[in-house]
Amino acid sequence: MRLDAVLYRSSARFFAVFLLLMVWAFWPSYFARLFEQPNVRFHLHGIALVLWGAMLVVQAQLIRTQRRSLHRQIGKASYVLAPAVIAITTSFVHYRVAGAVPSVDDLPPFVLYFLALTLNSIVVFALFYGLAIYFRRDAQRHARWMSCTVFPLFTPITDRLIGAHMPSLVALVPRIAGSPVVPVAGFVLADAILLVLALWDWRANRRTDVFATALGVLLLYHASVLTLYRVPAWDAFCGWFLSLPLS
Fold first, then answer.
1. Are 81 and 69 spatial neighbours (Cβ–Cβ below 8 Å)?
2. pTM for the complete prediction?
3. What distance in Å separates the CA atoms of residue 188 and residue 194, rounded to the nearest whole number?
């Protein structure tokens, strides 16, 4: 079966599963404790990401049911929602880290790793979304790039599900400064799914312009997470970022 047909029929289900896993992962720490959050940023971050996941489900379903006019109208809302996801997440990361480090001039390796994990995921999300909008008049490329926007968002979900339901996996991941790098499990899952999609797209359509490219970008992102914490220039950038008045 052609991959285009599978995306057309099944992408809404894929996005729905992603959204349900997001709610499941964050249920103990956020959804079950809505009135106990310490700052409004937690709510803004949660609302923005849930809206993004819900929008993907709705948009895919509208295409499947041939309601293209409504799909385009809702799609215009992404011009506000995607920048909001980027800005809110950046502010949220700044708030979480800047308030937890004693000095921006002497950042420990795990903080530098965490900033690479979070900030670079925002960059990849923005890139994939930007390409989806650039190719908005090419339905096949547009749909593929929009699908790719979920892959930079895997690790917050997989980290929590592993911690709560598969703690034995923690012993298998690498460590930085003695702390387990649990997102590696999410990296492997995201890369595996994209690899399957890239191979399928090549065999079915002789296409390498989206999923294979996205896999390459994602691999660079994952490599940056595991290496940048040792790079002095990244240390300097993180110190500058945390010194900004964002929170």
1. no
2. 0.95
3. 10
Place of tokens 């492997």: 188
In angstroms, rounded to a whole number, what is the distance separating the alpha carbons of residues 52 and 73? 15
- Taking only Cα atoms into account, the Rg of the chain, rounded to an integer number of angstroms, comes to 19
Other Cβ atoms closer than 10 A to 167: 10
pLDDT tens, residue order, the chain (247 aa): 566 666 667 888 999 999 999 999 999 999 999 999 999 999 999 999 999 999 999 999 998 888 999 999 999 999 999 999 999 999 999 999 998 898 888 899 999 999 999 999 999 999 999 999 999 999 899 999 999 999 999 999 999 999 999 999 999 999 999 999 999 999 999 999 999 999 998 988 888 889 999 999 999 999 999 999 999 999 999 999 999 998 7
SS3 25: helix
Numbers of helices and strands, H then E, in the chain: 9, 2
Question: 């295409």: which residue's tokens?
Answer: 63
How many CB atoms are closer than 10 A to CB 236? 12
Q: Do residues 146 and 59 lie in contact, with contact meaning Cβ atoms separated by under 8 Å? A: yes
Report how far residue 238's alpha carbon sits from residue 232's, in angstroms, rounded to the nearest whole number: 10
Residues 228, 234 contacting (CB under 8 angstroms) = yes
Burial (CB count within 10 angstroms: exposed 0-12, middle 13-18, buried 19+), residue 121 = buried
How far apart CA 241 and CA 247 sit, in angstroms, is 11
Three-state DSSP at 139 gives helix
The count of domains in the chain is 1
Residue range of the domain that includes 81 = 3-243
